[in-house]
Amino acid sequence: AVGGKSAVNVGVSKNQVGLFTIPKRVVLDMFALSSLPREQVCEGLVEAYKTGLALDPELSRFIEKQCAELLRGDLRAVAHVAGASAEAKGRVVTVDFREKGLRRVLNLGHTYGHAVETWHRCRISHGQSVAAGLIVMAELSRGRGLLSEADAARVITTLLSMVGERFALPTVEQAWPIILTDKKNAGGRVTFVLLKGIGDHVCVDDVGPEELAAARIRALQSWQA
């Protein structure tokens, strides 16, 4: 679709073998959107919200304000989010199709999120795993003083409304070996995409297990509330 990537998992590592293909056309079908169950709408909303947080503050604000309507499947609102998210992602992919630089922003929340998904052997969906990853990302960003208390709290509250039944979050001891296989890593260093404001990101490679563990503990306080 928009991103042009197809990949398969190998062993415990996600997206290790795949290819890039430029789509000839991307169609957002209103009838198909109207057929989606709530769980699938939530899946898309998590990824769309991630895109807004990383690239499009207006999109993230729309999702926050219209979250209840979106979760009820309001077709006009869902169609707006799908279109805006596709356009924002398309702008990035056009500049960096093979993920050499800017496109890494689309992995916001995915570093720990992929570890959640892999640790659960994909019994937890990708969207729900990414939601957990985004919450931990928000706590990492807040802990570093990059994201304000108010923005972090709003992001976490919005994500929690998209998550259904809570599931276990792997400890850092369980997650870190999986994180070490992440495709964003370079030179043996783990890469995290963090927020330094809504719509503004930064890639860092100095997050260690202790800092991640502290962010996970803070995330659990909201997760289990």
Report the sheet-strand fraction. 5-15%
- Mind summarizing the main beta sheet? 2 strands, antiparallel
Q: Which range best describes the helical content: under 10%, 10-25%, 25-40%, 40-55%, 55-70% or over 70%?
A: 40-55%
Q: Report how far apart the termini are.
A: 37 Å
Strand order of the largest sheet: 1-2
- Unreliable segments (pLDDT under 50, ≥5 consecutive)? none
Beta strands, count? 4
Query: H/E series, N to C?
Result: EEHHHHHHHHHEEH
Strand-pairing-aware structural class: mainly alpha
Figure out the total of helices. 10
On the 0-100 scale, what is the average pLDDT?
93
Please give the radius of gyration in angstroms. 17 Å
In one word, what is the shape? Answer: globular
**Quaternary organization:** single chain
Can you walk me through this structure?
- Helix content is 55%, strand content 10%.
- The protein is mainly alpha-helical and 225 residues long.
- Helix 6 packs across helix 7.
- The model has no long low-confidence stretch (mean pLDDT 93).
